[in-house]
Write a structure and sequence with these properties.
261 residues, alpha+beta, Diaminopimelate Epimerase, Chain A, domain 1, globular
Amino acid sequence: MNIHFYKYQGTGNDFIIIDNRNWRITNLPTEKIKFLCSRRFGIGADGLMLLNPRTGYDFEMKYYNSDGRESTMCGNGGRCMVKFANDLGIHKSTYFFIAVDGEHEAEIDGEIINLKMKDVGGIKEYEGDFILDTGSPHYVKMVSDVMDYDVLHKGMEIRYSKAFTKEGVNVNFVEEKGPDEIVVRTYERGVEDETLSCGTGVTASALVFYHNDVGYNHVTVTTKGGKLTVKYDRIDEGIYQNIWLCGPAEKVYEGDIELEP
């Protein structure tokens, strides 16, 4: 089967995207997705997404991690999907789409894609660190000198610890750089490695870092792949609404690949 694909990236978080509005792809086996995402044998990506039609929405976002399994929400993937939809000719002042964690809105402002994330209903303290769900489950740990931190092995230790090994968790290491700026590095489950950026992780880290401060609602986040901004309304302690993840997303290239039956 010949597949026409597109490659997009958002702050270094890269994705294979397929226009599936004709429902040509109804079942893409796990091993095929894993092959396509392989950086040595396939196209190479942190994940794969299908843009599907969905009644009542501009589109449906179906997301798979690079391990080939359907996963929870991907923030940078959502921003890339909106940019992809716009490039396909789906032009809206406000996009309205559905993903695995529910409905999302998005807007395009020049080169910046603004994606509205799900509300957060609580932040749990855990052994001195924090756990919350921003569309995907996240573990947030404050560290110093984050750029010199052993994210791969420390992240793996937490992700495969007894409390998280079954369902998995994304692990974020955060360092404060200023009154409204942090640096975040993330170990992602499903990729089982550090990624250059993680949208839901950036969102989780921003909310955790300022969850005791009522004065902030706009956080600049630096990742290894670039800068993102998280905006939000703090309703109460641990309760956040109107959360927006903002940053660039762009097409890298497109091509065709042949998959064996």
